[in-house]
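Blinded run. Sample ID left blank on purpose so nobody reads anything into the name before looking at the predicted structure. Input follows.
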Amino acid sequence: MGLCDDVRQHCAAVAAGARHVSIDEARLDAYDLRGPPPQPDPLDADRHYLEGSTQAVAQYLLILDAVNFGSGWFPLLRKRVVGGVPISGYYTVASALADHVRAEGVPDAATLRAMTTDRIAAILGQDPALELMSLFAQALRELGRFLGERS
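Blinded prediction complete.
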């Protein structure tokens, strides 16, 4: 069996053992699994760092994805306001990180390994007392350790 087969087998086992969610088998026919996959919406160039080199953009997106959790905390975030309207928690984080990368460059692995709660809160314009900031700092330190000496 290949990797995809392994993933499918484990997903099927998880789905079969789920207690609070289920797959509606009758609705699966509504999906065109033989056609081309749907294309995701393009990233917003104002709210994401996309103007750098391919490597720098990939690094930014990896860092953003490392902290792209905690949506249950988003009501507690200080939202960025655009055009007089508060934007979502995700875009607040993505925009603040993009602004930081534009001003300071993409943080390298050593910088990620040394990330503190106060530093990530300052980068994102948030209160360091918000527990989510310590969770973000931990996630970035773990990413830095995973990267080791790689960029």
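Unblinding after everyone has recorded impressions. The chain is about 50% helix and 5% strand.
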